[in-house]
Amino acid sequence: MTDTTSYPLLRTAGIDGMLVSFGARLGEAANRAALAFRASLERESWEGVEEISSSLVSAYLRFDPLALDHATLEARLRALMASRDWLQAELPHGRRLHRIPTVYGGSLAPQLAEAAQVAGMSEAEAVASLSSARVRVTALGFAPGQPYLGELPEVWNIPRQQALTPRVPQGALVLAIRQFVIFSVTAPTGWRHVGQTAAPLFRLGAERPFLLAPGDEVEFPQVSEEVFARMQADPDGGASWEAMP
């Protein structure tokens, strides 16, 4: 079925929320628009708005209805929505490029071979593809600091598993539907565990508690299990970053 909805789309979210969406599903332009719109909202700094966040293709505002009524907020949002072509917007400034060393396959990431087979690749081809990819943090969710990253090349548009893996460890790099997720906590998942990282994603009380932010870009260069073992003693887990222009 073809989606005939006109975007951007404004919807209410309960009595104190508004949601502006830029597409029906994840795509580079829709995600870029959501990130740019969120940054624009933060610059506006409207009185009565208490929270601003973004998801894969949407920006969300939570507001105090006693300080800012629905009609006023809706009018402001519609004016901002109409102020430019958000699907052509530039990404916000202040983003970072992160490099997070990763072990692929073996005992630490036991589903690489299965993922490669589903994608029609050898394990070596899969590692070459994944370790050379640069992906964007499209959103944070599920657990503190846990990123969704994409999009990977079309060959990685593989489905989730039919059943859950009961447990993957903190730092697991999992894959499905052209996306990576790094687990910030130990949890079950229906995505395939293809890599293992050591970088802490969440540091309570730190000036920047989340390692990654929406809009940041990330590469996952391959390292051996021996190098990975040494990185586990590093407070940063071997991760590094640089400012993006």
TrEMBL record:
Q: Which UniProt keywords apply?
A: ATP-binding, Hydrolase, Nucleotide-binding
- Any GO molecular function: hydrolase activity
Q: Which InterPro entries match?
A: CT_C_D (IPR003833), Cyclophilin-like_dom_sf (IPR029000), PxpB (IPR010016)
> SUPFAM superfamilies in the record, alphabetically?
Cyclophilin-like (SSF50891), PH0987 N-terminal domain-like (SSF160467)
Residue ranges that the Swiss-Prot or TrEMBL entry lists as coiled coil: none
Pfam families registered for this protein in UniProt: CT_C_D
Carboxyltransferase domain location is 8-212
Q: What is this protein called?
A: Allophanate hydrolase subunit 1
